[in-house]
Amino acid sequence: MIKLGDFNDLEVIRESSIGYYLDGTDDGILLPYGNTLERKLELGEKIHAFIYRDSKDRLIATLKTPLATIHTVAYLEVKSITELGAFVDFGLERDIFVPIKEQKYKLELGRKYLFYIYEDKTHRLAATTDIDRALDIWEDVTLGEETTGTIYGYQTNGSLMIAVNGLCRGVILNNEYFSDLRPGDEVKVRVKKIYEDGKVGVTPRRQKLEERSELQEKILQYLKDNGGSMSYNDKTSPETIKEIFNSSKNYFKMALGGLMRQNLITQDENGTKLIKK
């Protein structure tokens, strides 16, 4: 039985003016000359070929390696957007369709996202942003471990769903990020918690001392770029601090306190100033 969207070991049964035909169906499956090896294929030779459908929905074979196979998750680029859905590049001549109903968030042309590849009711390959079904739990993980992940959606409370290493379910709580992260973004994260259901809690924030030091440098540079003063201090609203410095108010206050202890800044009700040396 032919496995659509996957590699099959098939035999060359005849040659035509446009390519070779492989066994697997009554009429054979076309392997066009442009999709073959550079050498001539022999009748009876076994070929490891990827099978999908062409623009006329006929089974077609290729020896090229696609970016994704059926029932897998892949990071693919949106090539076009229509009223009915989008098309994503998976490395072959024909792009894969993503129906509107299979888009859990708005896709943007030219951006990459994680997609799950499946066979639709019409027996064509299709893609969906609903990748949770294909992700696993992380059984071998170390707290504090640094890794990477790709954002693939939102929870109702504003937390981000993230595929850790592209394979495992993870979450970034809404109080763990302060920059504008969105689906498709690849981020460096640190494992912070392992939940009972196997989901991994991660954070893009660095260790406290490291993050505090980086924030102090950011504050000093902001002051230098603005004539040595700013209207922000430890009384500034959390929303403003998040917008200007991509930080929590707590970390901002700690960073200001550290700079004051180093005798680098002063604060008053009007804001913060550099101390001139």
Description:
With 277 residues, the chain is mainly β. It has four domains: 7-62, Beta Barrel (OB fold (Dihydrolipoamide Acetyltransferase, E2P)), CATH 2.40.50; 73-132, OB fold (Dihydrolipoamide Acetyltransferase, E2P), CATH 2.40.50; 136-203, Nucleic acid-binding proteins (OB fold (Dihydrolipoamide Acetyltransferase, E2P), Beta Barrel); 208-274, Winged helix-like DNA-binding domain superfamily/Winged helix DNA-binding domain (Arc Repressor Mutant, subunit A, Orthogonal Bundle). 14% of the residues lie in helices and 36% in strands. The protein contains three helices and 18 strands. The protein has helices at residues 208-225, 238-245, 249-261; strands at residues 7-15, 19-22, 29-32, 46-53, 59-62, 73-81, 85-88, 96-99, 112-119, 125-128, 146-154, 160-164, 168-172, 186-194, 200-203, 229-230, 265-268, 271-274. A five-stranded antiparallel sheet has the order 3-2-1-4-5, with no helix packed on it. Strands 8-7-6-9-10 form a five-stranded antiparallel sheet, with no helix packed on it. It has a five-stranded mixed barrel with strand order 11-12-13-15-14. Strand 2 (19-22) and strand 3 form a beta hairpin. It is elongated and about 85 Å long. InterPro entries: CvfB_fam (IPR014464), CvfB_S1_st (IPR039566), CvfB_WH (IPR040764), NA-bd_OB-fold (IPR012340), S1_domain (IPR003029), WH-like_DNA-bd_sf (IPR036388). Keywords: DNA-binding. GO terms for molecular function: DNA binding.
